[in-house]
Amino acid sequence: MERDDEQALLMRAREYDLAALGELYDRYSPKIYTYMLYHTGDQELAEDLTANVFTKMLDAIQSSKAWEQSFSGWLYRIAHNQVVDHFRRDSRYTKQPLDERLPLDGQDLLAQAEDSISSERVREAMAHLTEEQQMVIVLKFFEERSNLEVAEIMGKTEGAIKSLQYRALAALRRHL
To answer: Is the pTM of this model over 0.70?
Structure first.
């Protein structure tokens, strides 16, 4: 979507246009859900927190608390705050168990176990990074966003994102 089209959509959403709000939800909810799932490791919790993000968006959309520059950056900030608030309230979720689902699409049990262990190691190593480093890794590598998109979301320059990514990857290598 071009910037002008998105701005028109956002203006309609500020007026509680249901079609515009639905389009924003359809566009951003899968990305926010992925972000939540990565941080929580729990599908139901990720769904609940994603719903909370869009509820907060609706509450703030007409106020001065709404986005000023980047709508997606604002949504990710709400998402980040939801994750932090959740873990602050419920400390028993600090470490998620390995995924216990049955093998998918004919994948053998050993391969799934190896994937789960690798994912768990990465999640544990990511916990040692700063919040900004975690966010840049998630946006760049899990969501496959460009440096420009990450810069807009995080409210930084592309150069700052490149530097942050370099430091985050170096720290991740040390912890792995």
So the answer is: no
Six-digit token pair at 107? Answer: 């994948």
Please, what CATH class does the domain formed by 1-92 belong to? mainly alpha
How far apart are alpha carbons 155 and 92 in whole angstroms? 32
Task: Tell me yes or no: is domain 108-176 CATH 3.40.50.720.
Answer: no
Q: What is the pLDDT of residues 16-45, one digit of tens each?
A: 899 999 999 999 999 999 888 888 888 899
Q: Which two tokens stand for residue 71?
A: 């709508």
Domain ranges of the chain: 1-92, 108-176
Higher pLDDT, 175 or 4: 175
Task: State what percent of residues in the chain have pLDDT above 90.
Answer: 24
Q: Angle at the Cα of 165 (from 90 to 2), degrees rounded to 5?
A: 90
Least confident range from 71-75, 109-113, 139-143: namely: 109-113
Three-state SS string across the chain, please? CCHHHHHHHHHHHHCCCHHHHHHHHHHHHHHHHHHHHHHHCCHHHHHHHHHHHHHHHHHHCCCCCCCCCCHHHHHHHHHHHHHHHHHHHCHHHCCCCCCCCCCCCCCCHHHHHHHHHHHHHHHHHHCCCCHHHHHHHHHHHHCCCCHHHHHHHHCCCHHHHHHHHHHHHHHHHHHC
